[in-house]
Amino acid sequence: MPTSFPVHANMSSSLEQYCKDNVKTIWHYHGGCQMSKVVNEDYKILGVNVVRVIDGSTLTNSPGTNPQASLLMLGRYMGVTILNKRLASDKSK
């Protein structure tokens, strides 16, 4: 694998600029399931009530690095949200 060199040769450039120049997201696909076009705010596929898409395809912007932590937190958040809705509906019965 070829060595990646900074685009900016100036060593005094900021860490932020270095990351923008060198951290690529070509292997982290996202944006295929756009909110309000493919899935709703509950991550349910429009027109299909029993299927949710909770993954990187729903992200509109990439953090610029490996999105694993962001996706883990999204999954946990939606899991807790779904569980709380189910518990609330069970209590109302």
How would you describe the overall organization of this protein?
By secondary structure, the protein is an all-alpha fold. It has one domain (25-91). Helix content is 34%, strand content 0%. It is built from two helices and no strands. The chain starts with 14 loop residues before the first helix and ends with a helix. 3% of the residues are buried. The model has no long low-confidence stretch (mean pLDDT 80).
Structural class of the helices, strands and pairings?
Answer: mainly alpha
Gyration radius, rounded: 19 Å
Share of helix among residues? 25-40%
SS field, number of helical segments: 2
Give the rounded overall mean pLDDT.
80
Percentage of residues in strands: under 5%
**Major pleated sheet:** none
Number of domains: 1
- Helix and strand string, N-terminal first? HH
Ranges where pLDDT stays below 50 over 5 or more residues in a row are: none
Distance between the termini: 60 Å
How would you sum up the global shape? elongated
Number of strands: 0
Keywords for this entry:
93 residues; mainly alpha; elongated
Give the topology, please:
Layout: H1 15-22, H2 68-91
